[in-house]
Every structure is written in C-alpha cells, then in structure tokens.
C-alpha cells in the first residue's frame, strides 16, 4: 500500500491543491462554501436513503427490522430532496444544531460545576465555560448569518490546513520516489 501511495504522490498533491482552493473559496465566498457543503450533505442523504431502502426491500436488514430501515431510507431521500430544493434550509438547520448543542453543553457544565463545588476548587472555570457555551449558542440563534459565516470560515481554515499537509506529504513522497526508484518500479511490487 505504501508503494502505491508513493507512486501516486501526485494524487495527494492534487488533493491538497483542491482542498486549499476550497478553503480559499470558503474565506472569499463563504456562501458558496456553505452551499457546497449543503449539496454534498443532500447527495449523501439521498444516496444513503436509496441504499437503506434497497437493504430493507432485499431482506438484508439484520434482525428482520426492515420497517425501520425503510423509514430511515425514506427520511434520507426526503432530506436529500429538500436540500436540493432549498439548500439554505440545510445550512440553517446545521447552525441550529450547533447552537442547541452549545446551549445544552453549557447547561450541563454549569450543573457539573455546582455539584463539584463541594469537592474541588476552581469549579468556577467550568461554570464560566458553561456560560460561554450558552452565550455562544444564543448568539448563533440571534445572529444566524454571522454564525453561518463563522462555520464557513472554520471549514475554510480546516480545508487550507488539510490541503497544505496533503501537499507537503505528496511532495515528500515524490522526493522519496526519486531517491529510491527501485522500490517503486513495477518489478519491486
């Protein structure tokens, strides 16, 4: 596997360049990046729904629970179709999931801090992080456009870092292939 990866170093370089390009687009045109993420999710949900229905109808559902698999499949197809018809709904839904997760996490952190108060010092740090989580979640609900922009930038930042690492790995593999040509020739495999 390592030799195949080394011989195809250029694929890692291409992958890195594409990731960097996507990251730059996410910074310069965050709406386009969010649209791309939503469409990928829609495609995934749609294909997953079809595969779930196929598994349910072909009798491959383990334990004879084909009804639940059929419902999951129908929901996946519906999510995919809704995403394709109105991708902004998917973007907003993702934002609200993040917001409600932050609020719930914050509440549990505050509860844990109150309970830990008897046992440790510095529990106020946990309570403070809980308050910060709640404020973050509330801010996302109050200002969804700013939240979507932040999500796009975070994805962009990840894509650029990932792309740089893939690019560096591809270049390093290319150097290795040039130093050790016998290892990557068809006869050595």
Mean pLDDT: 85
How large, in whole angstroms, is the Cα Rg?
A: 23 Å
How many beta-strand segments?
Answer: 0
- Distance from N terminus to C terminus (CA atoms, Å) equals 10 Å
The tally of structural domains comes to 1
What form results from the Cα inertia axes?
extended
User: How many DSSP H or I helices?
Assistant: 8
Bin the strand percentage: under 5%
What's the order of the H and E elements? HHHHHHHH
Largest sheet: none
Alpha-beta classification: mainly alpha
Given as residue ranges, the uncertain stretches (5+ residues, pLDDT < 50) are none
Please provide a written account of the structure.
The structure is a single chain. By secondary structure, the protein is mainly α. It has one domain. The chain is built from eight helices and no strands. Helix 2 runs antiparallel to helix 7 and helix 5 runs antiparallel to helix 6. The longest helix is centred in the C-terminal third of the chain and has 36 residues, at 144-179.
Keywords:
single chain, mainly alpha, 189 residues, 87% helix, 8 helices
Secondary-structure topology with pairs:
Elements: H1 2-7, H2 9-28, H3 30-57, H4 66-85, H5 87-116, H6 123-142, H7 144-179, H8 181-184
Helix pairs in contact: 2-3, 2-7, 3-4, 3-5, 3-7, 4-5, 5-6, 5-7, 6-7
Task: Summarize the model shown.
Helices cover 87% and strands 0% of the residues. The chain contains eight helices and no strands. The termini are close together.
């Amino acid at each position: 596997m390592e030799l195949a990866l080394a011989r195809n170093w250029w694929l890692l370089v291409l992958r890195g360049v594409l990731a960097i390009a996507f990251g730059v687009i996410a910074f310069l045109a965050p709406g386009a990046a969010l649209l791309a993420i939503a469409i990928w999710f829609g495609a995934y949900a749609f294909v997953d729904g079809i595969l779930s229905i196929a598994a349910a109808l072909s009798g491959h559902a383990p334990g004879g629970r084909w009804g639940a698999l059929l419902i999951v499949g129908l929901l996946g197809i519906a999510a995919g179709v809704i995403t394709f018809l109105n991708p902004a709904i998917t973007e907003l839904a993702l934002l609200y999931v993040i917001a409600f997760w932050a609020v719930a996490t914050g509440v549990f952190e505050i509860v844990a801090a109150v309970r830990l108060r008897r046992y440790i010092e510095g529990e106020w740090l946990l309570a403070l992080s809980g308050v910060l989580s709640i404020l973050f979640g509330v801010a996302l609900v109050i200002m969804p456009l700013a939240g979507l922009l932040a999500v796009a930038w975070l994805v962009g930042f990840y894509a650029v870092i990932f792309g740089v690492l893939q690019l560096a790995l591809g270049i390093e593999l290319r150097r290795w292939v040039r130093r050790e040509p016998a290892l990557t020739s068809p006869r050595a495999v």
